[in-house]
Write a structure and sequence with these properties.
By secondary structure, the chain is mainly alpha-helical. Helix content is about 40%, strand content about 5%. It contains 4 helices and 2 strands, in the order αααβαβ. The protein has helices at about 15-30, 45, 50-70, 95-110; strands at about 90, 130. It is globular, with a radius of gyration of 15 Å. It starts with 12 loop residues before the first helix and ends in a 15-residue tail after the last strand.
Length: about 150
């Protein structure tokens, strides 16, 4: 499960679609609708929000808005909390830099034409607020990756 902290406008098509699918799965987990993925580390930050379903609803709505702007049709009726207010979940600038590097690697392989659209400094999804710090504790960095 990869719930990108990056602004949805940065994500290439594959990352945007995958994040939507995985965000819907996260919503189902947080609503108690499945027994799988309940301990997934990417969910820690949503669980820490005052209202986890509102937080993931806001996250999904940001993805849906970006998809709509690109001409894709993400079914907004699948979002349980469409009235969600930005929860301001903290995300570190180090995490954003790591995710941008990770996205750059993926895009380089699957859609090199998207690479020029990636910024030098990452911006965060509207669900998050940037704070100083390194890679988040919930991130699982593969061995050998900086």
């Amino acid at each position: 499960m990869r719930l990108w902290s990056l602004h949805p406008s940065i994500l290439d098509r594959a990352a945007l679609v995958a994040c939507w699918r995985e965000g819907l799965l996260a919503q189902k987990v947080l609503a108690g609708g499945t027994r799988g993925y309940t301990r997934h580390p990417q969910l820690e930050r949503f669980r820490a929000a005052p209202d986890p379903l509102e937080a993931v609803g806001h996250f999904l709505e940001a993805l849906r808005l970006e998809a709509t702007a690109r001409g894709y049709r993400f079914d907004g009726s699948r979002i349980q909390r469409t009235d969600a207010v930005a929860p301001g979940i903290p995300v570190t600038d180090g995490q954003l830099a790591y995710e941008l590097s990770h996205l750059r690697d993926k895009v380089g392989l699957r859609d090199p034409g998207w690479l020029p659209r990636l910024p030098v400094v990452a911006s965060a999804s509207p669900t998050f607020r940037i704070v100083p710090g390194g890679i988040e504790t919930w991130e699982r960095v593969p061995p050998g990756r900086p």
